[in-house]
Amino acid sequence: MASSLPPIQSDDSKICVVMVGLPARGKSLIAGKAMRYLAWVGIPARVFNVGSYRRNNTPQPQATFFDPHNEEGERMRRAAAEGALSDMLAWFQAGKGTVAILDATNSTKERRKWIHEQCTAANIETLFVESICDDEDLIMTNILEVKTTSPDYKGQDPELAALDFRKRIRNYEKVYETIDDGEKKYTYVKLINVGSTVIINQIKDYLSSRLVYYIQNLHIKPRSIWLSRHGESEYNLTGRIGGDSNISERGEAYASALPELMRKSGIPENTKIVIWTSTLRRTIQTARHLKAETSFEKLEWKALDELDSGVCDGLTYEQIAEKYPEDFAARDEDKYNYRYRGGESYRDVVIRLEPIIMELERSENVVIVTHQAVLRCIYSYFMNVPQEKSPWMEVPLHTLIKLTPRAYGTEEQRFKADIPAVSTWRGKGTSAKHQDFPADGNEQQK
Ligand code: SIN
Fold first, then answer.
1. DSSP alpha helices (H): ranges in 294-324?
2. Residue 445 pLDDT exceeds 50
3. Where is the 6-phosphofructo-2-kinase domain (predicted)?
4. pLDDT digits (tens, 9 = 90+) for 275-320
5. Per the annotation, does 231 bind a ligand?
6. pLDDT value at position 430?
7. How far, in Å, CA of 58 to CA of 135, rounded?
C-alpha cells in the first residue's frame, strides 16, 4: 500500500536566520549546513549571501574596500545588503520558502535593527545567529580555507590572499558590535568558539527551537566522514532485499581490504576515528577487520539498519512485481514517499536518521558502514541531493566515499576497491536482479 505522508510539519512561521560575526568565524559553513539540514527534512530554505551580491560589482576587492572610512566601499556594501534583503523578501512573498538565511557579517547594531524592522514589517521572524571565535587556531584554519576556496581570492597568490584577508578582518573589527543586552528583544543564539559555549535568547516557535538545537550541535573543526555500504552479501547475490544475511566471499574480501582503502583515502595524523555500523550482520562483518587493525572505537546503531521492506523482506524485485504489482508501480511513481506494507519509506528513514545526523554533527571523524537506502539518505544530507532524486542514486558496493565539509560545500572523493560485486541498483520501471547504472546518465538517476 502506498502512503503519501505530508512533509515534516513546522508551524506557519517564516524565519529569517541572520548570521552575525567577523569574517573567518565559520558563518558560511553554518549557513550552508543549516540550509542543507532544512532541505533534507523537507523545509524549503535558501541562503542569501551578501558577498555574492557584492561580487556582482566588485568581484575581487582589496582589504581597503572594507575600511569603514571608505565611502564608496560602504555605499557598495550597503547596496549589496539591500539587494540580498529585497530578493529575500520577494522570495518569501512569492511563497517559495519557509526559512531564509542571510549570510553576511551584519556586524553593527544599526544593520541588525534595519534587518529586524524590514522582516517584522513583512511578518517574518528573525533569528540572529552570532558566531564568536577567539581561538587563534580555528581562525587560522578558516583563513586558510577562505584563501583557498573563496572566489574573492581566486587565482591569487595564497600568501598575499591570507595577508589581505587578515587586513579585511581588522577593518571589520573597527566597527564590530557583538549582540548584547541592548538587543534582548531579539531572538538570538551566540555560539562561542564553535559551540563550546552557547547563549540562547527568546526562542519563540517550534521551528526556531529545532534550528537552534541543530546549530548548537555544530562545530567547524576540520574533519571527514567516510561512508561505505557493507561488503556484497549473500542476499545481494540472489537479488533479494532486506534480511540479515552474511557477507559473500567477495564481501569478505572487501572487509579485509577496507583498512587499506581507508589509509589510501588519507587519514590525518593523530586523528581519532569512530566506526559506526548498523545492528545487522553484514555491516558488522564488513567493519570487523577495520576495527581489529586500528584502535578505532566502534558503535552499533539500530537507526542505521536498512530501510524496512515489510512484507517484501526477503523477496527479489521480480517477486515483488509479481506478488504486489500495484505497490511496485506506486513505489516507482514516488519512491521517496512510498512505504512498504508493514515497513518504511525513504521519508521514514530520514526521520529516524535525524538523531544520527545530530550526533554526526557533534562528532569529528566517523566511518559509517551501512546499507544502500540509509547511505543514500546520509549522503543526500551532506551533498544536498533533492528528495526526489536521492532514492534513485547509485551507491555501488565495494566503494569507500570520503566526504570533507568545507566552507563552500562538501568535497567528495571515491575510492573503489578492486573487488567485483553485483550491482544492486535498479532503474525505474524494471525488476532486473542486477543492473548496470547507465554511464551517460539518465537525468532522474543522477
Ligand atoms: C562581503 O562583501 O564579502 C560581505 C559583506 C558583509 O557581510 O559584510
1. 317-323
2. no
3. 10-222
4. 999 999 999 999 999 999 998 999 999 999 999 999 999 999 999 9
5. yes
6. 76
7. 30
Ligand 1 centroid distance, CA of 101 (Å)? 14
Q: What is the CATH number of the domain that holds 369?
A: 3.40.50.1240
Q: Which stretch of 10-14, 265-269, 303-307, 321-325 has the lowest confidence by average pLDDT?
A: 10-14
Q: Assess whether the C-beta atom of 50 lies below 6 angstroms from ligand 1.
A: yes
* Residue with grid cell 547596496, as numbered in its chain: 79
Indicate the residue among 187, 215, 243 that finishes a domain: 215
- Indicate whether 211 and 235 sit together in one domain: no
Would the CB of 105 count as within 6 Å of ligand 1?
A: yes
Q: Is the pLDDT at 4 greater than 80, yes or no?
A: no
Give the burial class of 260: count Cβ atoms within 10 A of its Cβ; 0-12 exposed, 13-18 middle, 19 or more buried. middle
Q: Is residue 105 part of a domain?
A: yes
Q: From ligand 1's centre to the CA of 118, what distance in Å?
A: 19
Domain end position, chosen among 196, 215, 234: 215
> How many helices, marked H, and strands, marked E, lie in the chain?
14, 12
Question: Tens digit of pLDDT for each residue in 191-209?
Answer: 998 778 999 999 988 899 9
Ligand 1 atom closest to 58 (CA): 2
Q: Whose CA is nearest to atom 1 of ligand 1?
A: 51
Question: Is 33 inside a domain boundary?
Answer: yes
Whole-model pTM? 0.87
In the chain, the number of structural domains is 2
Tell me which residues are annotated as active site.
230, 306
Residue type at 184? K
The residue whose C-alpha atom lies closest to atom 7 belonging to ligand 1 is: 104
With both helix axes pointing from N to C terminus, report the angle between 372-383 and 27-40 in degrees, rounded to the nearest 10: 140
